[in-house]
Amino acid sequence: MSVAEFVPATQTELARWMAENAAAARQKLLPVGGRTSLHFGFSAESDCQIDSRELTRVVDYPARDLTITVEAGMRIEELQRLLVAERQQLPVDIAQPVRATIGGAIACNASGPRRHGSGTLRDYLIGCSAIDAQGSLFKSGGRVVKNVAGYDLCKLLIGSRGTLAVITQVTLKVKPLPEAAGWWWLTFDTFAEMENVLERLLTSAARPMALEMLDVPAAKLVATESRLPLPTDCPVLAILVEGTSREVAWQLDVLRKETVPFGVQQIEQLLDQDARTLTAALTEFQVPTDEPLTFQANLRPSRCWEFAELANRLDVAVQCHAGNGVIIGQFPEAAASRDQALTLLQPLQQFASAHTGNLQILHCDPEWQDDLPMCGQPEPAWGIMQQLKRQLDPQGLLSPGRFIDRVPISA
Length: 411
What we know:
The structure is a single chain. This protein is an alpha+beta fold. It is 30% helix and 23% strand. It folds into 3 domains: 4-176, Uridine Diphospho-n-acetylenolpyruvylglucosamine Reductase, domain 3; 180-284, 2-Layer Sandwich (Alpha-Beta Plaits), CATH 3.30.70.2190; 293-371, Alpha-Beta Plaits (2-Layer Sandwich). It has an 8-stranded antiparallel β-sheet, with helices on both faces.
């Protein structure tokens, strides 16, 4: 069945249209941007998609204040291009930047390798405008960094997946663009050796922006994506630093001296364009392709190496953001049925739960969804989240079934 589409030219037009819909037709609405994350979690039910592709204006860009205000339909690539012209950046790695929009990235709480050193969109969103299911336009925050007035509704919308309101405009903090960047790509015989390196880096004078732990299947996928001649026969620890050219050279030298004594088998240095290429490849790892299932686990950073070791034994490709405990995993093509997927998933889920972590499904066959932990194990806040959904969207018009609506709450 085909789904209708509404493409507003302005925020006012969208607010009026949504108010009319709430009063009469009551169509189920699905906000979409670049459509890069529609597969995340449960499949959404909708009668009409609200497409933000016309909401691309630059509202305000006082570059000296290190802030920018844009409409939510602006593509990430275009946003970064505007910032680069002023030697600035939004230092959050977002996959598929040619397609992804800033509003969609915020709604899905997108992040990547540099999350360790730069943070997430939560650290850069200082103001937003959005429209609720009844067509009411509301604003939160402002266009200045030091803004603490009122409730911080901006943070509420981060990761809401279009279930609470349609984000229409955002104000972001930005940072100066670093002069240089460099990666170390290090291979080890065991994950335990990597953990020894990570413990050593806690007291390092260097300040890594990213600490990426890859098992062999993931290392091969990243090397193929980057088209760089990287060794992939053993587990990999990749370390990124940024700064001036002198700072990068000094930090890379410090890291080499600190890591090599811990059992490094092979070591490759990537600078400038090669460094940017590797960053992009690591960012794109989370994008599902032909794999039957992609998941995200959240653990204490100290447990990443054990999780990666388990995944490697199961032939599951995993990329661990080892500095913050976020893990992206892709199942092998051999897991072609629901039962095969469950067989691989259960030990990984059990490990996460046993170590105060969680695991949720980012993408899988829609027919598997009712039998898999799409939103992870039950959490105490889920009941509150459902109440909030009912308060902001009492008619259940925005992205019904996409997220919290389909989470089972035990009595």
